[in-house]
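QA checklist item 7 of 12: single-chain prediction sanity check.
[x] sequence parsed
[x] length recorded as 150
[x] structure emitted
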Amino acid sequence: MTKIDQKNAQIVQILSQEGRISQTELAERVALSPSACLRRVQELERSGVIKGYRAVIDHRALGAGFIAYIAVGLSDHSKNAQEAFEQSIAKAPEVRECHNITGTVEYLLRVEVADLAAYKHFHTEVLGTLPQVNAITSYVVMGSPKDERA
């Protein structure tokens, strides 16, 4: 396991916000030589601390202006029911995140669609047709003053 010392923590923090930063700029910002900084980044990648790099997409610019979180309760709490639900959700492009959670329901979904009509279609024709689902509670996002997802 890679040791997360102060320099590695700085590298991870900067890369999580600026994944396209040049190695030279990164090295300057963390006060390391470019070669020492590169070695640390490569070790963070090899050890799995850094899993990958991705673009942060503005889904509203792509037409997904309606965002909701949905708490989903299952009627059957078995492993088979959970696996069947997860397989169905994996096929739904509207679902951007699916989390198995603790509490009164089993799942929390983040859904992004074009508008309320598209959300209603997803709610009724996708979630509403899954035999494992017995409770759906929607939370519509009105704004996101802080969103650090990559």
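[x] summary fact logged: Residues 68 and 103 are 19 Å apart (CA to CA).
[ ] second reviewer sign-off
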